[in-house]
Amino acid sequence: MVKKTEKGLYIKPIRSGTTIDHLPAGTALKVLKIVGKAENAITVAIRVPSRKLGVKDLVFVENKTLNEEQLAKIALIAPNATVNIIENNEVKQKIHLQTPKEVHGILECINPNCITNKENIPSKFYINEQGMAKCHYCERIMTREEYSVRIRV
C-alpha cells in the first residue's frame, strides 16, 4: 500500500522495522551512517514538507530495530526526532528523542591535543540545553554542527 501525502509525495509504509521522523532537513544522510548496513530496504526522504518543521527528512529502515547507542547518536543530531518501532504494520513503540545530558565514547573531541585523541581513553562530553558539548578532559566546547560530524559510527 502506498500513501499519498497532501503535497503529492509517495512514501511506502514499512511492515516491520524502524521509522525516524521529524529529522531536521539535511540530517538524513548523517542518520544513515549511524543506522549502518541493513539487510533490507532503507527509504530516505529529504526535504519533505512538514507542518511542524516546514521541511524535514525521514528514514525508514525495514526489519531492523536500532539499539540504545544508535538512538543516542541520532538524538545528538536530531534532538526532537521521533522514532517509531513498527511490527505487523502497527506502531508498537514511539520514542521521542531528547538530547542526552552526557555521552561516553560517542563523540571525538575537536581538540587535536585532547587526551582522548592522544591515548586510548574514551571520550566524555556534557551537553547543555543549547546543544553545546563540553569535553570532560580538555573542556573544549563544540556546537551541534561541529560534533555532528564527529560522531563515531
Largest sheet: 5 strands, antiparallel
Query: How big is the Rg?
Result: 17 Å
Uncertain residue segments: none
Major sheet strand order? 4-5-3-6-7
Global structural class: alpha+beta
Write down the overall geometry: elongated
Could you report the average pLDDT, rounded to the nearest whole number?
91
The helicity comes to 10-25%
**C-alpha end-to-end distance:** 33 Å
Number of helices: 4
Q: N-to-C SSE series?
A: EEEHEEHEEEHEEEH
Q: Report the sheet-strand fraction.
A: 35-45%
User: How many strand segments?
Assistant: 11
Main attributes of the structure:
153 residues; five-stranded antiparallel beta sheet; 18% helix
Describe this structure as you would to a colleague.
The structure is a single chain. This protein has 153 residues and is an alpha+beta fold. Helix content is 18%, strand content 36%. It contains 4 helices and 11 strands. It has helices at 28-35, 68-77, 115-118, 144-148, and strands spanning 3-4, 10-11, 17-24, 42-50, 54-62, 82-87, 90-96, 102-104, 124-127, 133-135, 141-142. The strands form 3 sheets. Strands 4-5-3-6-7 form a 5-stranded antiparallel beta sheet, with helices on one face.
Give a brief description.
The protein has helices at about 30-35, 70-75, 115-120, 145-150; strands spanning about 5, 10, 15-25, 40-50, 55-60, 80-85, 90-95, 100-105, 125, 135, 140.
